Structure formats: C-alpha cells, structure tokens
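Technical note accompanying the year-one report. For the benefit of new consortium partners, we illustrate the data format agreed upon in the data management plan: each record pairs a sequence with a structure-token string. No post-processing was applied to the example shown here.
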Amino acid sequence: MRAALVFLVLLVSACGYTTGDGRRTANIEKAYEVRDACLVRNVTADDTANSDPATIAHAVAMACSPETEKLLAAANRDGDSKVAAAIRQDSEFRARGYVLKERGQPIF
C-alpha cells in the first residue's frame, strides 16, 4: 500500500512540474526566429561567391546586431557576459552556415 501511495504522489507531482516560464520561452524562440531571418536575408543580399566566408559571416552578424541584442535581452535577463558572448558567437556561426549553404558547400 505504501509503495502505491508513493507512486501516486510521484505521478501527480510529475504532471504538475514545469520547466520554465512559457511566455519567456516563447519570446526567446521568437527572437531566435527574427535573428535567423535577418541572417538569411543579409546572406542572400551579399556577394557570397567571391569573398571569404568568415568575413561575410562577420559582416552579416554585424548587420543583424539589433536582432541579436533583442535576443540577448530576452534570453539573458541576468546580463551574464559569458551568455552574451555565446549568443553573439552563435550569430556569427549561424551566419557562416548560411553563407556556405548559399554557396552550395557543405556546412560541416
């Protein structure tokens, strides 16, 4: 009987467990989508065939810095510099992937 009661308590508590603020998570996901759309838009606007992919990626990431900063505001409420650096590096990494994809080259 005791095992059944423990199992029931665990089952009920697991159903009520949430991993975060749903609205905040939705805002972060939307900010990622807006940032990625900006990266894609700017990659297709650049001359990707004749320049170094890293150079283009850096320029594209800089062009989308307002979107990246909005993403930082949504995701990094504590102002952690390591988190900010990681998100900025991710923007440049994704931009480079979009450049290589635009060229028809393998990303990895």
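Partners are asked to follow this layout when depositing records. The helical segments are 2-16, 22-45, 53-63, 65-75, 81-103.
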